[in-house]
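Sample A.
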Amino acid sequence: MIKKLLSFLVFVSMLSVSTGYAQSKNVSGTVSDESGVPLPGVSVVVKGQARGASTDFDGNFSIDNVASTDVLVFSFIGFADQEVTVGSQSSFTITLAESAEALDEVVLTALGIEKQAKSIGYAQETVKGEELAGRQENNVIDALKGRVAGVQITNNDAGGGGSVNIVIRGGTNILPGRSDQPLIVVDGVPIQNDDTDQDRGSRRDWGSGINAVNPADIESMEVLKGANAAALYGSRGANGVILITTKKGRDNGGIGITYDFNARFEDIATTRDVQNVYGIGYNGWDKANPFPTNDNGNLAMPGVSYWGSGASWGPEMDGTPVEYYDGVVRPFSPQPNNLKEPYGIGETYVHSVSMQGANEKGSFRASFTDNKSERMEPNNHYDRFNASFNADYNLSSKVTAGLTFNYANIDNLNPRVLGDNDQGWGKALLYNWARSERVQLRMDNYLTPEGTLDPDYRYGRSGGIVWNLLQRKEMREIDRYFGAFTLNWQFTDWLNLMVRTGIDNANEQRTMKQPPQNPDGLDLKYSTGLSKDNSRNSEFLLTGNHQLTDDLGLTANFGGSQYYRKKYGLYSRDDRYWNNPNLYALDNAQQFVNGDRNRAINRIPNEEFWEKKINSLYGTLDFNFKDYLFLQVTGRNDWSSTLPDDANSYFYPSFNSSFVFTDAFQDAFAGMEWLNYGKVRGTWAQGAVDDSPYQTVPTYNIGSRFGEPASFVPGEIPATNLKPQKTDTWEAGLDLGMFNNRVNFNFTYYNKLSENQIMSGPLAWSTGFNSRRFNTGSMRNSGVEITVDATPISTNDFNWNVLFSFSKNKNEVVNLDDSGAIETLRITGLWGSNGPSIEAQPGQPYGQIMGWDFIYDDATGKPLVDEDGYLYTTNTRVALGNVTPDFLSGLINTFTYKDFTFNMIMDAKIGGDTYFSSKGVADGFGQSAESLRGRDTQYGGLSWTDGNGNARTDGMIEDAIVSPDAPVYNPETDSYDFSTSGENTSIIPARHYWAVRSSGWGAGAPTTHSVHENSWIRLTELSLGYNVPRKFLESFFIQNLSFNVFARNVGYLYKTAPDNLNPHSTINGGKLSGIEFGGSPITRTIGFGAKVSF
């Protein structure tokens, strides 16, 4: 056995290198069943190649450029596959034999167990490798968009390397911070998919763990939606599982080499709608108060504060000469492209090389991929290098060894900021870019010749904003490697043992460098840190099968696993007071402020460590009655280290069954030629979820007190009686194959209830803690999923396939605690207590948008104003909308004509609201196109006289009802008491009219103006591929050559986001994407690629 293992390690070098080529020709023929009836729709492919044909209605087929050494594979549902070597023949007559075993394809299920699709009693969808070919997505999950019903994939438009959030059939966790994402399993190894320290509101998006998986290595993906996944994968699979299978080595007559090149270019498709009539102006500088005249006798651009630098309530941009900040006189004219000018063209270049081979002893595949990206924003990049190795080797006739290894190096500089942060372009363009702003002028004038911030840069804090954008460098470098070693023993023809050990390790280095703005160099900024995240998953699975009777078969599995994860981090940050302004090092920091020993500088590093372990035993019993009735019973027991000793053991049972009624009653369905296949299925399963580490024991935080190191007890009391969170799920479904399996229909209804939620609640300060962790609350999800896969046209030369998916999920927070005392729970928000929030409330869908609204007259529905014409607002936050969509849908059309393939992908989200802060801010700042209304008589403005006696034409009247006295809230009726005196006739300035709609920072600032439905139908992708005929390649020793061009995020066919804002650009990459602030503009990507195999 030792010699066999050594042979496995060197077996790659022992594969012979021999590649043969033969003359190509056209082959054709007819395919029929055993009765001689032609079979339309039979798949005829060249083995090992992504080309072939389908038989027409008369069973005929034809394929060009086939070599004599090629093997043709004939496959059709309900018939056994047949392989034929071409040889010297050019014409074939093929007879396919019926086969019950071939009626359903074999799919990969939980724990890596292969099963016939017809035996599965729950919903599972497959995305095959040919559907992913040539796509080169930013991450592998993007390939699921529009293809899989019931899966909501959210990218917050953070550009290359950004995070992706996946929710299957609605979220199950009420408490914020508890992930609803599915488990990702790569070649049998669970891997981490945590967001890499993404702040939920105002910081950079560093991406998700899935970004380390190389899209070029993917063979297929299986999406396990139901709780059966949790029943077999434990608490980590409670939200579903995505099984990823990577490419394996194939026999190419020697070692095959493939080179794949891909180039992508991202550009702004459109920016938000703005006005280009009025320029900068705020607090007095407006149409009625022109710019001041300076000592040179010129009209001069006024100095404005940080808050006023983006305001555009000034004079008309009519070309009047104005002296700018650099002393040059320029025309005061519109700048229609200044929201686009800071951006360049984002460029991504991907080079991938792979080699593979196989013989009777085993197979191998190795690949190397280099991905280099420059995002659209200046001063950033995203680079990723991947290497992988995958091998299988037959140590003996009964023992097989397998090895998978994946490595990723990610270098990420200044990824996109998602929200309210001065280091992001989104906020700068919103708060600091007036409509008259000359972009390049700003960029050219913020530095002194010495390289520090120009003190005469007359923008107040805005100078620092530009400094942050162009000088600050936040970097993270990640080294990650994951893989597994597997041994399979086939003891007998009915008993097999699999043993596997897998690892997933990531080392991350963080650095932030920002040069000093001031000449003294004391404000240099520098921080550094490192983290190590290591996990190990070891498991075994014993599989046996036995035919109990002629009609009843049994397959049994028994296994166990141990999951262990530990994480360590050490971080330090210094923002000011340095000895050397040019040295980025922690030991360069001053211990005391300029030597003053009474002013010690606190520089306590932050260090964290935690570990977690789960031990598991599990088993399955699969019964097969006459190959048309199937029943599976599963059970799993976990022992988690994160729960109290007396509650750390929990059990997951599940049952699922499927019934292929067209097989059971063949005679009854014999006359229904349109129905080829029918199956009903059902399942019930229970899942459980544990908690994060150290919630049940007291831990201490390290900090400082009065400049000295100190430790602090946690704010949350340890949960000594915590129990696992439970989820019960049942589902039922129907699968149909019709019209010679040219139309396949799948329907699923599901219902899942998550109870015993792990929650946090407030405590009285007298306890010494501010909150406690306990089990309470429940949330329900129910819905339907529909998938239709149809081939309307299939001939020798032309094929048209349509894939349609639809899903509707109804979510309800049943209660937040068993007593009903908790009426609302804040999930996320903007500006803390001074802005809108997203909350969970009993009886409502998860994700209520809460904010301040106007107070309305019951009789007319109009808002109330005071006697001066200004709107009243509510005293507290009220519900303004909900983020939950009504339904999701996808539509994929694939057209194949000879060697050309054209794909058109669409996806849609209908319903669900979003707080678009950019809408309110742009209105309040006078930037939006809508804010032109009322500016002058040509825009509907009314004539009036201001307090200084100036005649003006920018008056507006609120369409409202006057309430002379302020409305008073009545808690008994949950409404406001007020009196009215008639319709409003008071004129207010247009700037005041729009200011009250600005949805700005501050408790009580009206939010309702910015809450809008966020529905869209998007043309997600167009692509065209071409496979070069082999007859053109033979003399160059090339086996396959293909080219493709594509466009992504092509455009929106329907969109409800206001002011042409980006519906995908939200500050929250988690399970709630309901708040937008300073979002990125809508972008579009075009690209091309080429792939050659030798």
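Sample B.
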Amino acid sequence: MAPRGHNRSPGRSPYRVHQASRSHGAPMKLLLDLQGAQSQSRHRGIGRYTLALTHAFLERAEPLHDVRLLFNARFDAPTDALIATLGRHARPDRRVLLDMPEGIRAQPGGNAWLRQAASRIMRHAIEGLHADVAWFSSPLEGYNDDAVLPDAPPAGMASVATLYDLIPLHDADAYLGHPRVREWYEQGVDMLRRCDLLLAISEWVRQDAIERLHLPPERVVNIGSAVDGSFRRPDPNPAASEELRRRHGIVRPFVLYNGGFDPRKNVAALIEAFATLPKPLRSRHQLVIVGRISDEEKLRLDAVTRRTTLPPGSIVYTGFAPDSDLIRLYAECALFVFPSLLEGFGLPPLEAMACGAPVIASNSASLPEVIDRRDALFDPKRVESISERMTKVLDNPAFATELRQYALDRAASFRWSTVAQRAGEAMQALAGKRQSTHIPTTSTPTSRITCVRVGGARAPAWLSEHDARIVSLTSQAENSDVMSWPQNSERVLYVANASNLQQLEPIMRSRPGALLIEELPQNLLATPGTSVLRAAYRAGGYAKLVAMRDVDKEQADPRLISILEHSLGTMCTDERIPHALRAQATAITMPNIAVLPAHNASYACIQQMALAYSTHPLALEAQLLDDIAAMEGKPSDDDIAAVASAVVTSRKPGDVRQWLVDVSSIAEKDIRTGVQRVVRNILVHWLKSPPAGIRIEPVRFSQGRYRYARRYALDLLGATDVTMPEDAVEIASGDVFVGLDWAIDTIAAAEPQLRDWHRRGVSMHFLVHDLLPITLPDTFHPYARNRFEDWLRRIIGIGDQFICVSQATATDLHHWINAEAPTYPFGAAPIITHSPLGVDAMLGNNTSEPRKHLAKAMHARPTLLMVGTIEPRKGYDQALEACEILWNNHINFNLVIVGHFGWLMETFRARVEGHAEHHQRLFWLDDVCDDELDVIYRTSTTLLAASWGEGYGLPLIEAARRGLPVIARDLPVFREVMGEQAQYFTAPSAEQLADVLRSGLTRATVSSDRVTPPMQWSSWKQSAAAMAHKVMAHRP
């Protein structure tokens, strides 16, 4: 098939640029890069800030603004967590996942080419989204992990970054001593300088950026910060407080610190200040230090402690504390002290204040903005200043109480909604300013034009004015020569007559260019040969292929679609040509064809080519590849493969969405069970008549990945003469995965890929036939039960919707979920619905007979028919025992069993095969085709459905539609599908069942006329349409 994403015309992006002048409050199209909440920063303040601000911003922005969330696909688990946390704001159509090569972090070195290529790919991918604003949540990432930023601000949009601080520039020797760290940090700072707007988290950070980056003041805005709503004074809980203190060895009232341990955090000065407190005051308190601390940092602080006179037990190191512990520590401390020398904002003091702690902090950097109270500040460079302020609080209960109340009031003024509002207003003003000053320009291509003449087409005379190279394409050798040119080294103009456009199909797919059509088309019709059928599949999927095989209808050559799809722009000099093409190719969606003015064709053509090469996705990708090829360095084969994969996955999806229909089991082996009959019938109708805008693609899991199951699909459609490769599946956001087949053998291996598809915006729908291994566990082998439950738990974790074949099965699934309470990694519980199955069309003209020995018996006496796999739940043992009772009582009838051998029924098989009535009045057929089954239905007297549990009950409907009386066990699912069209029984014993069968056979024999029941059941066509509607209606 054509590469995904190259069938979208320029301007059809979800971020199509709005050309109207922007006023205050006008919609804005924004791309928010969330790597700050995905990378290792997610464990620090940057991650918390990014997530909290994102949530608040999205609450305010939607539905006015169109916000897309950009995720780095390299961070899979953090991505899942973010999707779950952001909920409806991160629905699939809002998500953009970018694949970056592995191993691009800056720390190890030796990967400069790969890192540079990844940054260039990211810029290309972002530019293709056509946003008004690209907002980078954390512009200094990627040293210790595979986070990546574009190598330059993306063109065509404003670039905005959140700025937390520039503290490393205050002491470059301490923070940027290693050359690799310095290079990495300077690259990030350069990105900050080139952004159109920086959103500073404090006024101190804003002023620092203006001074150190030499930026105009209007390019840096202070949006502030806030604290998460979970940080508030907790309800009193003496037991929880006692347990927390006991766990950490806190035995006295305590002074608290929470934060990092690098030198600027000034924790050593805090220890010294605590040691210099008046002895009675110090002896009544402990110093509790919270935070993840390295062994090296702990040794350094232990050395400081030893130089003081502090007795053992005076200082408690808790290590990392979860929020639940931290909140209670904040609320119960006697004092919270934050002695940092440099801080971009100072979130711990604000958290402590929100929990009602008395807080004192440094009078440096941003901390006065947070505290906003002079008598709660100290000089962090003077130990005595810290100690004095601590003493004032600890030795003055009234002052401490005053600070507690002040803290609560002050913290309440910091709200994420306010921060989000400031950020939104700043970005909207920027976008409006850029829009009002935007002047469209058209450039003239600077590279040489190569004109490729196809067949007898003539190169326009005016091309000589542009020093164009002229190439004639008349042989395969020349074709190969053209395709060997370096990508985008020259601008290509193909010149062809409409009647020989087909010759361009192979070269246009590998080397796109602009297309000039010279003459009116004469005949665009095609003979459906193999190459044409392959082209039909590429152009319109299996439905188009099936249509092309209809030799009674003349079809436009589908290769035209591929040619026009891969043209960077189609032009002509005769205004009649577009009309003629549309008239002959009625089944093809024709692109716009530019008619060049006769008086100025040269200028118009050059301008059209300039526009195409600067905006068309194919041309932009070619430029990307040129840029990567020009990068210095010697990439390895693995590097090149990783970059190629990233380029492919960066392509934007087209207008047609794929439904990836899993046929993993049936494509491997069709054992023609009820489940597989459902798969065949639903799939064949979808293939022939897909929903509008949908491309049906059967897929199978093989060799560690999903592949297009083209061989199976072609066989199902009877197109065995067509062969196509089974490529790896390419997905795009908006595609749909339908677990139509029960792929229990592949789910464990396939789950990681399905989970990855889900986070990329592919919605997941699974067909559930029954929960019988759970509801009737004794009728299945323990291994089968375990496998089934494993399959169910896996699909529950990734499924968006479960379509059950009956309401009874849906009810069972609801009950199981309520009882098990499974986790949903993506945050939302799935939708559970049901859609009835169809039944085969009644052949009507089937006059054949069953196999000879069976036909003779069926004509001689009444026949009781059972249809279904031979397994314990089907009730075969009880049914045979009941029949034996009747035979022993001289009731003359046949028992005919149609079904494959299943499991745990070896004793029954031996019993049947050794039975005195075998091949006399007892028949078991395990190799019946659909035609023979139809004849058996018509020749039988009554259908017996003795199952102890079912998911649906297709044989009951198939029998009833042929007027065959049905005797069925009284199951909810049987009543659901049959209504009053069956005779129901409970019959826990064989004797009771024998009585039921005696009366049922008697009634059926006396009234031998077949009567079609009034109840109407869906055909497979209707069932397929209903199931498609369920999928369409519940795509997230």
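B remarks: The two ends are 26 Å apart (CA to CA). The longest helix spans residues 416-437.
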